Amino acid sequence: MKKVQSIGVVVFNGDAVLLVRSGPTASHFEGKNGLPSGKVERDETNEEAAVRELSEETGLITSIEDLHPIKTFTATIEQKQGPVTFVWHTFLCTKYEGTLSSSKETTPYWVKIGELSKIKNLLPNIETAVELAKSVTPSGFTTRFARMH
Fold first, then answer.
1. For the CA atoms of 120, 122, 127, 129, what is the dihedral angle to 10 degrees?
2. Per the domain annotation, does 148 fall within a domain?
3. Distance CA 36, CA 38 (A)
4. Which of 82, 96, 111, 132 is deepest in the core (most CB within 10 A)?
5. Domain residues for 80?
6. Residue 142: inside a domain, yes or no?
C-alpha cells in the first residue's frame, strides 16, 4: 500500500489546543476530529505544507520559522475511498495570527487539553502529538504561545 506524506500542526492557546472537525466534503468521514492536517503537495516541503494547511483549514497564518518538529507517525486511516496509510509529520506552531474560520472541508475549534480524551471520533495519534508538543520548547520559548495581531 502506498504511503501518503502528510503534516499535522499543534496550536495551543493557553490551556486549549486547536482541532478541526471534518465536514461532508472532506476526504475523512464527516465528524472526524483531528489537528489541522493535510497532504504534502508535489514540490512542497513539510513545513510549507504545514503553513498552507493551517491557513486553509483554520484561517490562521504562521511562518516556517514558527514551526517546530514534534514527531513523525504512521497510521492507516479509513477514508471515503478506502483505507489510506499516512506518514504524518507533526509540528508545533508557536506563533500565529488571524481569526478562526471554517473551510469547505473543516470547522476549527478550541478544546481544553484536559478534555481531549473525551472528544468522540478523534483520529489516531492526536493525543500523543499534543502531549509531545507540550515538551517541545524552542530556545527562548515559554509556554505562553504568542498570537500575532
1. -160
2. no
3. 7
4. 96
5. 3-136
6. no
Residue 141: predicted pLDDT: 47
Domain annotation covers residue 144? no
**Which three cell numbers, joined as nine digits, stand for 61?**
497564518
Contact of 54 with 68, CB cutoff 8 Å: no
Task: Give the gyration radius of the chain's Cα atoms.
Answer: 14
Q: Where do the H-state alpha helices sit in 1-149?
A: 46-58, 126-135
CATH number of the domain residue 32 falls in:
3.90.79.10
**Grid cell listed for 147:** 498570537
**Is residue 149 domain-resident?**
no
CB contact at 8 A, 143 and 17? no
> What are the per-10-residue average pLDDT scores of the chain (149 residues)?
93 96 87 96 97 97 97 92 94 96 96 96 96 76 44
Report the C-alpha gap between 13 and 94 in whole angstroms. 10
Q: Strand runs (DSSP E) across the chain, as ranges?
A: 3-13, 16-22, 33-34, 37-39, 67-79, 82-93, 95-97, 106-112, 146-148
Give me the number of domains the chain comprises: 1
